[in-house]
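A reminder from the course coordinator: this example appears on the midterm review sheet, so study it carefully.

Given structure:
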């Protein structure tokens, strides 16, 4: 059995270098595509290094200038000698296939890099102290190599035009129907056409505005679609029993306080039983393990995606996440968190919804209506998000004086693919059911309950 050889192609490397002597202009294409380390043999690395030096110094590249540069650096012998350099063009059949030769050299280099990374991971496995850190670092190394794979960086306007026309025709055939996941709220769907794959949604508000309840309502509505999509809900603040309790209260229209105490009448027990049956059929997955690192969260989502059990991710809430490493300030850390969430949405081609707290600066203004600057560590969140929604309750600040009790205004502060609306659209919030509804609820019904707001 022959000894295994490290992946490389001597002929392809020679053909790439030889092309420079046939047509010196090809160095522009080659230098844009290949690094020095992409060449396997040392002599080819030395020759390519000298060629790049001449190119960067605007010196004409030919046999004389190249051999002279190698000789001055006392590397001509190591590079194979004069005869080897002169013979490179003879081994190159044609520069017509230059792209093919470049691809062969780069592909072999990627395979070698993956082998080296795998070896490093193997060796590091003997001294692992923290399993999670080891997995995250291994995953990062492999992902970095994978990103260097040969890809098409450019597409023609013709192919993109055809794709846009196709999508437009599909949208016309839908006759106004949604192109993303139906949130169950007509006004929200109007702005987003449903939650779209690869997009990051931020739902931001001060505490007790109903963020968690709103997110749970959206998850429940989406999970009820005919396609039975899978939704993963990461709760970093509440336990899964609290979350499911809220969903049961909302689904059964049973007062949450009565649900917690078990003081239910016969009809309410029946409603609760029916609601339980309905919810058990939904593909909603909860994680309340206190996953703190955003990279751990991404790893869990990748696993679900590999199992074809992921169509939507909801995180409650963003400020409780941490970065993959220690940062000197929180702004840098949040920048990594928002970037990873956006990358995850694009990589897995799913909508990602992250709840976010607004800063206390809202409370210090006479006008309590939130603005973008109120997002805590807002710069990166505002930049990475495709859609930013604010929830605002006037009755939270004005109490009994409010002319709009139990109304939550949903403001579309940012919408990368559509219109914004800072005036917002109203939803009725049944606080005692943790339920949002679009229809108007008789004012006396909620006021007579005497229930306190449910903190989110």
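Designed residues:
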């Amino acid at each position: 059995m022959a000894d295994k050889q490290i992946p490389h192609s001597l002929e392809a490397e020679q053909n790439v270098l030889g092309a420079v002597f046939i047509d010196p202009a090809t160095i522009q294409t080659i230098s844009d595509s290949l690094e020095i380390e992409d060449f396997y043999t040392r002599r080819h690395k030395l020759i390519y290094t000298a060629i790049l030096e001449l190119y960067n110094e605007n010196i004409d590249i030919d046999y004389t200038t190249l051999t002279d540069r190698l000789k001055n650096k006392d590397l001509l012998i190591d590079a194979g000698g004069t005869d080897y350099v002169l013979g490179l063009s003879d081994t190159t059949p044609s520069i017509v296939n230059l792209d093919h030769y470049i691809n062969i050299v780069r592909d072999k280099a990627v395979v070698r890099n993956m082998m080296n990374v795998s070896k490093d991971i193997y060796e590091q496995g003997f001294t692992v102290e923290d399993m999670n850190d080891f997995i995250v670092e291994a995953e990062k190394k492999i992902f970095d190599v994978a990103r260097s794979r040969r890809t098409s960086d450019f597409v023609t306007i013709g192919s993109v035009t055809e794709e846009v026309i196709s999508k437009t025709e599909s949208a016309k055939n839908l006759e106004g129907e949604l192109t993303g996941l139906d949130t169950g709220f007509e006004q929200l769907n109007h702005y987003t056409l449903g939650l779209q794959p690869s997009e990051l949604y931020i739902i931001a508000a001060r505490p007790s505005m109903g963020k968690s309840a709103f997110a749970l309502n959206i998850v429940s509505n989406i999970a009820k679609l005919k396609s039975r999509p899978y939704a993963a809900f990461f709760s970093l603040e509440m336990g899964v029993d609290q979350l499911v309790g809220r969903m049961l209260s909302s689904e059964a229209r049973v007062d949450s306080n009565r649900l917690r105490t078990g003081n239910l009448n016969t009809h309410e027990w029946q409603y609760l039983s029916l609601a339980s049956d309905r919810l058990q059929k939904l593909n909603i997955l909860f994680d309340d393990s206190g996953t703190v690192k955003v990279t751990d969260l991404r790893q869990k989502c990748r696993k679900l995606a590999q199992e074809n059990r992921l169509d939507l991710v909801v995180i409650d809430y963003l400020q409780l996440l941490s970065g993959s490493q220690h940062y000197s300030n929180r702004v840098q850390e949040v920048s990594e968190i928002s970037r990873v969430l956006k990358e995850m949405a694009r990589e897995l081609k799913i909508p990602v919804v992250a709840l976010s707290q607004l800063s206390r600066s809202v409370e210090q203004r006479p006008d309590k209506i939130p603005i973008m600057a109120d997002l805590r560590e807002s710069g990166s969140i505002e930049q990475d998000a495709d859609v930013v929604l604010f929830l605002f309750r006037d009755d939270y600040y004005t109490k009994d004086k409010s002319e709009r009790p139990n109304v939550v205004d949903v403001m579309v502060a940012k919408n990368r693919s559509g219109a914004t609306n800072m005036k917002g659209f109203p939803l009725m919030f049944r606080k005692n059911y943790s339920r949002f509804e679009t229809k108007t609820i008789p004012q006396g019904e909620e006021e007579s309950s005497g229930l306190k707001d449910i903190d989110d």
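Confidence is low (pLDDT under 50) at residues 441-456. DSSP finds 18 helices and nine strands in the chain.
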